[in-house]
């Protein structure tokens, strides 16, 4: 077929003619081959003024839409990975010492000495857990951490418990880290004490916005605060140790001891266990490296294992060092009149209270804690997406937003963390019992998965790996129980939340499985065109252009078309019938009087009656309910029109063998339509 | 000397794409040269319409393939951050259409590809289009010949020919 629209372009020589071929798709799509199109950003652009306004706001808040081809696949060097993965575990050194001291002050100043052996015991536990995670890193280089190990090696229930524990862990990381960061800010600037929760809330909101924009963890910007904190903390410890060991400086704890009861508890085993359980929060986040092995440069497992070892060593040095300096200078947590964290007091002793060094250190501490919160924004949505793909969480968790971020996971993480933060008044100490239990449950199940891995695979050196994971599993299992008991009753909340999460995940999985089985088609089946009767019902409010258009659409679907008028005004209905039979003689009109003024009920009842009168030996026909709709041009017009149509559509959703067809009538498409004055105006389809 | 240093290869160039194995070479070279002088590129693909059809007849299958080719050129140009517009033409003579279009858009260079192929294993075949463009284009003409190794690879099956028609018949 020649196209007369295409003008010929003449060349320099006679007969050299050419025709320019329009490519209307090019504004919205790109061809990647015959019959295959890829949508461009402009294809998703809104067409309405309000839509463009919303898009503009989204653009300002979250940035421009990113294509999946723009996803950064940067591999991390050990140096960079150390900074990125260590922010979560290393930041816990900012509050772990304080958690030990908060328990020990209950027994009086004399027992504060025990803080050091407890810190060392926690460091030993850290060494064992790190060694165990090195096994996971080597055995599962594709990443995924404890959930991947449990899913591969343990029954489904165990992997779901790990998933629930990890999800809880990530939420708690956000809540605890921002709460602690806020406390560091207050310790440095006591005037902001009234805004402690507000600071944490604002931080979470900002981190959420940043992540919705697709904030990448791989940027150098994340490495800087980590190294600044580690450097300044190591310097602080070194100066502190020098002053204690060489200069012989030390100070007794304040008297009376802040936070100590009038009658100090006896230093019993229970108190020691509680102090150890509190200090074990230092281990939180150590699993981050095992989750992100694929992000390392090759050889991934080797580099990840080396990074994990470095993180563990730095964390142990910082934790034990801060505890030692704090004890030596008699530092204990102060809550009254203004909260002062242990690490801020240590910094005040070493760098000088109110000095530039002190403020810088507090800034670095707050920054690394905010950064630790940010790591969960990477981990939680990814785990939620994996669970969604496995069918254990709603599918929307696996969809990525305009900026390639798993938006649903980010929003849920923020909301839950904010609720916890506000409910606990931004108090780190109150939040921590919830934190540790989930982490140690995940550690334990992950290690037990590794035990089964070694016993099943039996690769070279499996006995050594088995021994390490057995030790790790036993120790973390014991700590999980200890933390659960020692931190009761708050910690018992976790024992309730994790099973609830597991039950919800199982319920979701059962629903998806059932629907998938229901929807599945046999791969070898060939589907011929159906031979089923069809009929069309057009509910009408009267006679107007929208109704005529809907009737015409109905005529194109099937020959059996009938209009149904449900009316509570018999006189008006009779007038409409008279007009209908005159103007649309080939389409029967069924008039249903509705003395009770209902619309939807009589319509559904009429459809039911139609079905009942259908011959029982024949398959029910497909009933197309063609609803005329008047397209609103403005947002306020939407309130005026189509309310009945919307109610009817909602009522028909899910009705067996019924298809609802909306036929929009656009005023703009028919600008030359003759205006017919009517004595009694009835809205088009209100 | 300084004039030579500052001289940009062209301000606007036409890339003649034929759906053959040299197209990517042509686009990449065009983009690299355009980047130097912040120049503009016009990628042209000409669907050759034989005398059995009207010149303005819609050739859907050929259009899809050609569109994919021009879209590929746009994607590559975007990666170089170079301005490129795609132009799809139908003509009886591919080479004449390229020259005429280059004149119309005011191009000061035409870049075309030349796959290395031998006729029946004998003489090297240059086709009809390149000599025509050489003789008739008022601007500079840059011909990119693919490496012999690429040609050999293609003949052993690793390459892929996309469509017919174009500058190097």
State the major sheet of chain B.
5 strands, parallel
Q: What structural class do the secondary elements of chain A suggest?
A: alpha/beta
| Main beta sheet strand tally, sense and closure of chain A | 5 strands, parallel
Q: Shape of chain A, please?
A: elongated
Radius of gyration of chain B: 16 Å
Q: Helical segment tally of chain B?
A: 6
Stretches of chain A where pLDDT is under 50 for at least 5 consecutive residues are none
Report mean pLDDT of chain A, rounded to a whole number: 83
- Quantity of strands of chain A, as a count: 9
Strand content of chain B: 15-25%
The shape of chain B is globular
Secondary-structure element order of chain B, N to C: HEHEHEHEHEH
User: Helix amount of chain A, in percent?
Assistant: 55-70%
Q: Can you describe this structure?
A:
- The complex is a heterodimer of chains A (686) and B (169).
- Chain A has 686 residues and is α/β, with parallel strands linked by helices.
- Chain A is built from 22 helices and nine strands.
- Chain A is 57% helix and 8% strand.
- In chain A, the strands form three sheets. Chain A has a five-stranded parallel β-sheet, sandwiched between helices. Chain A has a two-stranded antiparallel ribbon with strand order 1-2. Chain A has a two-stranded antiparallel sheet with strand order 3-4.
- In chain A, helix 2 packs across helix 8 and helix 2 crosses helix 13.
- Chain A is elongated.
- Chain B has 169 residues and is of the alpha/beta class.
- In chain B, helix 3 (60-80) links the parallel strand 2 (40-48) and strand 3 (83-91).
- The longest helix of chain B has 21 residues, at 60-80.
- Chains A and B meet through strand 2 and strand 3 of A and helix 3, strand 3 and helix 4 of B.
- Strand 2 of chain A pairs antiparallel with strand 3 of chain B, so a sheet runs across the interface.
């Amino acid at each position: 077929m020649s196209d007369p629209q295409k003008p010929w372009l003449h060349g320099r020589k006679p007969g050299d003619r050419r025709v320019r071929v329009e490519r209307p798709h090019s504004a919205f799509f790109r061809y990647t081959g015959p019959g295959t199109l890829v949508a461009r950003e402009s294809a998703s652009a809104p067409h309405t003024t309000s839509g463009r306004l919303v898009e503009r706001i989204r653009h300002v808040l979250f940035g421009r839409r990113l294509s999946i081809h723009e996803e950064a696949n940067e591999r991390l060097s050990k140096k960079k990975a150390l900074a990125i993965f260590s922010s979560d575990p290393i930041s816990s050194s900012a509050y772990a010492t304080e958690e030990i001291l908060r328990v020990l002050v209950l027994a009086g100043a004399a027992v504060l000495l025990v803080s050091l052996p407890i810190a060392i015991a926690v460091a030993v536990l850290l060494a064992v857990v790190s060694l165990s995670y090195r096994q996971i890193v080597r055995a599962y280089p594709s990443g995924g951490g404890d959930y991947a190990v449990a899913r591969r090696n343990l029954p489904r229930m165990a992997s779901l418990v790990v998933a629930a524990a990890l999800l809880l862990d990530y939420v708690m990381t956000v809540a605890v880290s921002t709460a602690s960061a806020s406390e560091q800010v207050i310790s440095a600037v006591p005037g902001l004490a009234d805004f402690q929760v507000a600071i944490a809330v604002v931080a979470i909101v900002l981190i959420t916005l940043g992540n919705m924009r697709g904030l990448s963890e791989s940027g150098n910007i994340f490495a800087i605060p980590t190294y600044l904190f580690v450097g300044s903390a190591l310097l602080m410890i070194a100066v502190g140790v020098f002053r204690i060991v060489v200069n012989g400086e030390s100070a007794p704890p304040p008297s009376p001891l802040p936070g100590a009861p009038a009658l100090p508890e006896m230093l019993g085993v229970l108190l020691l266990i509680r102090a150890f359980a509190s200090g074990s929060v230092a281990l939180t986040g150590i699993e981050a490296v095992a989750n992100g092995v694929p992000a390392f440069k090759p050889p991934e497992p080797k580099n990840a294992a080396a990074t994990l070892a470095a993180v563990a060593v730095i964390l142990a040095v910082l934790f034990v060092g801060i505890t030692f300096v704090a004890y030596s200078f008699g530092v204990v947590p102060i809550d009254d009149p203004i909260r002062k964290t242990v690490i801020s007091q240590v910094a005040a002793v070493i760098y000088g209270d109110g000095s530039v060094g002190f403020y810088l250190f507090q800034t670095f501490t707050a920054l690394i804690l905010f950064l630790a919160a940010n790591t969960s924004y990477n981990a939680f949505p990814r785990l939620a997406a994996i669970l969604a793909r496995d069918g254990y969480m709603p599918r929307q968790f696996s969809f990525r937003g305009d900026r390639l971020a798993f938006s649903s996971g980010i929003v849920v993480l923020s909301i839950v963390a904010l609720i916890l933060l506000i409910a606990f008044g931004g108090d780190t100490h109150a939040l921590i019992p919830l934190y540790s239990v989930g982490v140690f449950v995940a550690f334990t199940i992950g290690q037990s998965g590794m035990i089964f891995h070694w016993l099943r695979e039996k690769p070279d050196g499996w006995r050594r790996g088995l021994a390490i994971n057995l030790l790790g599993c036993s120790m973390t299992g014991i700590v999980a129980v200890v933390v659960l008991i020692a931190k009761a009753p708050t910690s018992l909340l976790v024992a309730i939340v994790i099973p609830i999460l597991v039950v919800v995940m199982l319920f979701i999985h059962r629903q998806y499985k059932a629907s998938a089985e229901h929807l599945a088609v046999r791969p070898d089946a060939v589907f011929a065109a159906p031979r089923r009767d069809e009929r069309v019902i057009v509910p009408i409010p009267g006679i107007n252009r929208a109704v005529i258009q809907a009737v015409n659409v109905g005529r194109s679907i099937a020959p059996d078309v009938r209009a149904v008028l449900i009316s509570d005004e018999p006189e008006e209905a009779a007038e409409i019938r008279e007009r209908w039979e005159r103007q649309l003689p080939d389409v029967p009109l069924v008039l249903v009087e509705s003395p009770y003024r209902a619309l939807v009920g009589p319509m559904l009842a009429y459809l039911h009656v139609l079905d009942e009168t259908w011959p029982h030996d024949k398959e029910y026909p497909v009933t197309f309910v063609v609803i005329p709709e008047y397209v609103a041009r403005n947002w306020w017009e939407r309130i005026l029109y189509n309310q009945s149509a919307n109610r009817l559509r909602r009522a028909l959703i899910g009705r067996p063998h019924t298809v609802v067809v909306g036929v929009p009538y656009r005023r703009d498409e028919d600008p030359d339509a003759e205006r017919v004055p009517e004595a009694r105006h009835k809205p088009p389809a209100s | 000397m300084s004039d030579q240093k500052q001289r940009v290869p062209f301000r606007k160039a036409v890339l003649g794409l034929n759906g053959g194995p040299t197209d990517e070479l042509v686009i990449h070279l065009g983009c690299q040269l355009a980047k130097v002088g912040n120049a503009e590129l016009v990628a042209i693909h000409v669907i050759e319409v034989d005398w059995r059809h009207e010149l303005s007849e819609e050739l859907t299958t050929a259009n899809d393939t050609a569109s994919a080719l021009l879209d590929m050129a746009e994607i590559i140009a975007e990666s170089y951050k170079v301005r490129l517009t795609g132009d799809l033409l139908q003509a009886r003579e591919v080479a004449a259409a390229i020259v005429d279009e280059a004149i119309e858009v005011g191009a000061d260079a035409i870049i075309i590809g030349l796959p290395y192929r031998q006729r029946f294993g004998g003489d090297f075949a240059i086709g009809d289009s390149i000599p025509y463009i050489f003789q008739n284009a008022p601007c500079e003409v840059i011909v990119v010949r693919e490496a012999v190794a690429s040609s050999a690879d293609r003949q052993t099956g690793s390459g892929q020919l996309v469509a017919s028609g174009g500058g190097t018949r």
